[in-house]
Write a structure and sequence with these properties.
Strand order of the largest sheet: 1-2
CATH topology of the largest domain: Lysozyme
Order of helices and strands: HEEHHHHHHHHEEHHEEH
Number of domains: 2
Distance between the termini: 87 Å
Strand content: 5-15%
Number of strands: 6
Largest sheet: 2 strands, antiparallel
CATH architecture of the largest domain: Orthogonal Bundle
Structural class: mainly alpha
Helix content: 40-55%
Shape: globular
Number of helices: 12
Length: 325
């Protein structure tokens, strides 16, 4: 009798467990259905719009070729949905682009090359694992070849104006060597000898028809993608007001000369801080400048009240959504 009672209890427990499992399964299924409906109603991931025609530095991009179109699409998707990086590129551009645009015009280089700077450095002074440095990511030997002073105390790869002039000279040399700005941009990434070897071995003249290493294969498409997104940010989901972007920093230039200069003292003597001196002159890479060659440099210091946000943005609190960078 006792055994029968135990069996009855076990069977009852199993029946309850089965009902609980069925209930949980039904609930889980209902939850999944609710989630699916919510996703369909509220969540959207869009494929980026593709242009019908596109030019880089005045050269037509052959979007009629499927692999060119898909190469561009890949970079548009990657950068459209790499929101933090792309948003910072848009924000920084209003500070950096005016200088780059002016120098590109002076040097006779197409304005589209400013987007090469975007993908090289994110419009920042950064150093790559390979040792490339600055806004335009010059290696030391190439930077020196194009007139940049690079040493233990001074690294002009980090000076936006000097590095942009050097990059223009380099790009113009590449254009003369390869005949097109597109190939010049590719060579900027993989080196002129590397690109020349691939063009010869594959019997091609166009970047778009080359089989290249993965980085260079994507390189020009990344430039094109950033160009499209930054020229038409709203078309790719970016709503940025003018007041959200970073303004140019007001400054005045003073001369720095002599030997064994304590830069903290120099900054204090000119009414600023060592932090601001180094921030506005990132090409200085030491706190005490020996300057054995006794050179004279122009350094930037902020104008009066030039560190206060409300001062440097005076008259620029425009809440208009920007349409193009």
């Amino acid at each position: 009798m006792k055994k029968l009672s135990i069996i009855a209890i076990v069977l009852a427990s199993l029946a309850l467990a089965g009902e609980a499992f069925i209930f949980a399964t039904r609930k889980e299924k209902n939850d999944d259905e609710l989630l699916t409906r919510a996703i369909r109603a509220d969540y959207r991931v869009y494929a980026p719009p593709m242009p019908d025609t596109l030019y880089f530095c005045g050269e037509r991009v052959p979007l009629n070729l499927w692999y060119v179109r898909e190469g561009l699409d890949r970079e548009l998707v990657s950068n459209m949905y790499y929101q933090s990086s792309t948003l910072f590129n848009i924000k920084r551009a209003t500070r950096v682009f005016p200088t780059i645009e002016r120098i590109l015009k002076e040097e006779g280089v197409p304005q589209d090359m400013k987007y090469l700077c975007v993908i090289e450095s994110g419009l920042q002074n950064v150093t790559s694992p390979a040792g490339a440095n600055g806004y335009w990511q010059f290696m030391k030997t190439t930077g020196q070849k194009y007139g940049l002073e690079i040493g233990d105390e001074i690294d002009m790869r980090n000076d936006l104006e000097a590095a942009t002039h050097a990059a223009c000279r380099y790009l113009k040399d590449l254009k003369r060597r390869f005949g097109g700005w597109t190939e010049a941009a590719a060579a900027y990434n993989c080196g002129e000898n590397g690109l020349e070897k691939r063009l010869a071995s594959q019997r091609q003249k166009s970047y778009y028809n080359l089989y290249l290493n993965k980085e260079t294969q994507r390189y020009v498409y990344r430039i094109l993608a950033l160009k499209l997104i930054m020229q038409h940010p709203q078309d790719y989901g970016y709503t940025v007001r003018r007041c959200d972007t970073y303004p140019e920093l007001p400054y005045e230039e003073v001369l720095l000369s002599g030997k064994d200069i304590d830069l903290a003292d120099f900054a204090a003597d000119h009414g600023t801080s060592y932090k601001m001196l180094r921030t506005m002159n990132p090409w200085i890479t030491t706190d005490k400048l020996k300057n054995k060659a006794d050179k004279t440099y122009k350094v930037r210091i902020p104008t009066k009240k030039g560190t206060e946000y409300t001062t440097i943005t005076k008259g620029k609190h425009d809440t208009t959504v920007i349409e193009s960078i």
